[in-house]
Write a structure and sequence with these properties.
By secondary structure, the chain is α/β, with parallel strands linked by helices. The protein contains 19 helices and 17 strands. The protein has three domains: about 80 residues, no CATH class; about 120 residues, Alpha-Beta Complex (Aspartate Aminotransferase, domain 1), CATH 3.90.1150; about 250 residues, Aspartate Aminotransferase, domain 2 (3-Layer(aba) Sandwich), CATH 3.40.640. The structure holds pyridoxal-5'-phosphate.
């Protein structure tokens, strides 16, 4: 081992090696950057030799060669995107781990325009005076939801927190036990409530809550009744919940009592008319008399991550003035993406299909099948390494929305002649871009609902490439 440690050259000598210059040029690095990578490589190698994890006895490896290999690997990894695009072959449209909604082209272009230039974010150009970023999308939100007023914060969790902090701190909020949800493991209504300083008053049981439960819980300490959309689970069987209308009537009997609904997904597009789920429209919820509603920007809406709050003007004004509104405020890029997405809703008609989330959820079975068939034909004309069947299956909407809704779809069910399904899916994740799939019945499933036509070439190329690996 000692002799190898002695062979480890000092970095200033490695810098003079022609391999140093070759790597520097190949990866387009500065001298300083490659020097750092080389130093790291030397340190790692020394450590591996000292710990005995690396034993070069009996091999004819040259230490300097190992250093350059390692430095080149670092350089390659450095150049790769950390936040990288992936191909979503799972068919789950709102995949929280894969970034939820994709933006429409128009929305992405508007983000670029606003990000690359100065903007009127908080400036009235006509008056030459300071403006408010809240004004940018308020009218679009009013138009698309029928609300009196609206505002936007960082995400829906932030919206819930702001609403409870600003309107119910040190006072009571009544929630049905059946709605005390946890979403994605990191958002619990009860925890957010505790953080906000509002006091949770649970009523009813997990499966049944009656109007009288609410009636009995109301006291002079009560600030609001909160309804939480049970967006990521369903309680089925012997259940009962209190209708929104009945709760509205109840709260109207009590001066100053508010009714807030955390809608979660918040649809502005009527999926019901396609026979998909029974998600209420934000407009419908407001019309039923709820004072204030919050929902996510990147779930069924199909826009950027954001928390949208709509409802009565007096309440929204109060929220806008709260210190937390400043803490939770959104960036100009979010506003740009949201503006363009909302314009598409206001325009209506077929333009709505420019929003990928809506397009993917409402895709026809025929077009998915066609795409799956094209894929199978293309891959099989290029390699014999796979057995691929066209299968009927179902896709989920995901993102904690519309649980229990299964959209009929077609998948390519793939087995590699040598690799196990686990190995194949791992190889697919190693592609650039990574291809994420699901494994079912010991086959790798690719669901074409979430794959764009322009991703097809990348997909088949990756399969052809994997077929050649040993
Ligand atoms: C998704 C969801 C949230 C959290 O929304 P984010 O935008 O992810 O912060 C809160 N409440 C409900 C009911 C949800 O479905």
């Amino acid at each position: 081992m000692k002799q190898y440690l002695r062979q480890l050259p000092p970095v200033h000598e490695l810098q003079k090696d022609r391999r140093f210059e070759a790597i520097r040029q190949a990866y387009d690095l500065t001298n300083e950057q490659l020097t750092r990578f080389t130093q790291h490589a030397v340190n790692d190698l020394r450590e591996e030799l000292l710990s005995g994890r690396l034993n070069l006895d009996g091999t004819n490896k040259v230490v300097s060669e190992l250093v350059f290999e390692s430095a080149a690997k670092r350089a390659g990894e450095w150049k790769e995107d950390r936040l990288a695009r992936v191909i979503n072959g799972t068919g789950t449209v709102l995949h929280t781990n894969l970034g939820r909604s994709r933006l429409s082209l128009e929305a992405a272009q508007h983000v670029t325009r606003v990000a690359r230039n100065y903007s009127n974010l908080e400036y009235h150009t006509a008056q030459g005076k300071r403006g408010s970023r809240h004004d940018i999308i308020e009218d679009l939100l009013k138009e698309s939801t029928g609300a009196e007023a609206a505002m936007v914060v960082n995400n829906n969790a932030a919206a819930v927190f702001l609403i409870l902090s600003a309107l119910a701190k040190n006072r009571e909020v009544i929630v049905s036990r059946g709605q005390l949800v946890e979403i994605g493991g990191s958002f619990r209504v009860s925890s957010i409530m505790e953080e906000s300083g509002a006091k949770l008053v649970e009523v009813g049981t997990t499966n049944k809550t009656h109007l009288v439960d609410f009636e009995h819980a109301i006291s002079k300490e009560t600030a609001m009744i909160m309804k939480v959309h049970t967006s990521n689970f369903m309680i089925i069987g012997f259940t009962e919940t209190v209708e929104t209308e009945a709760l509205v009537d109840l709260k109207n009997k009590h001066e100053g009592l508010l009714f807030y609904e955390d809608l979660g997904s918040g649809a502005l597009y009527d999926f019901k008319k396609h026979g998909i789920g029974d998600e209420p429209l934000v407009k419908e919820v407001l019309e039923s008399g709820v004072d204030i509603v919050s929902f996510s920007g990147d779930k069924l809406l199909g826009g950027p991550q954001a928390g949208i709050i709509v409802g009565r003007k007096a309440i929204i004004d109060q929220l806008k003035k709260h210190q937390l509104a400043r803490v939770l405020r959104v960036d100009k890029m979010t506003l740009a993406a949201l503006e363009e997405t909302l314009k598409t809703y206001v325009a209506g008609g077929n333009a709505i299909l420019e929003i990928p989330t809506i397009r993917d959820i409402t895709r026809s079975l025929g077009s998915i099948k066609q795409q799956a068939e094209d894929f199978i034909q293309d891959v099989q004309s290029r390699t014999t390494a796979y057995k691929i069947d066209l299968k009927e299956s179902t896709s989920q909407i995901g993102g904690g929305t519309m649980p229990g809704v299964e959209l009929p779809t077609y998948v390519a069910a793939i087995t590699h002649l040598r690799f196990s399904s686990q190995e194949l899916s791992q190889n697919l994740r190693g592609c650039s871009p990574a291809i994420v799939t699901r494994i079912q019945d010991n086959q790798v499933y690719i669901d074409f609902r979430t794959i764009e036509e322009q991703e097809m070439q990348l997909l088949t190329d990756s399969f052809a490439e994997i077929a050649q690996t040993k």
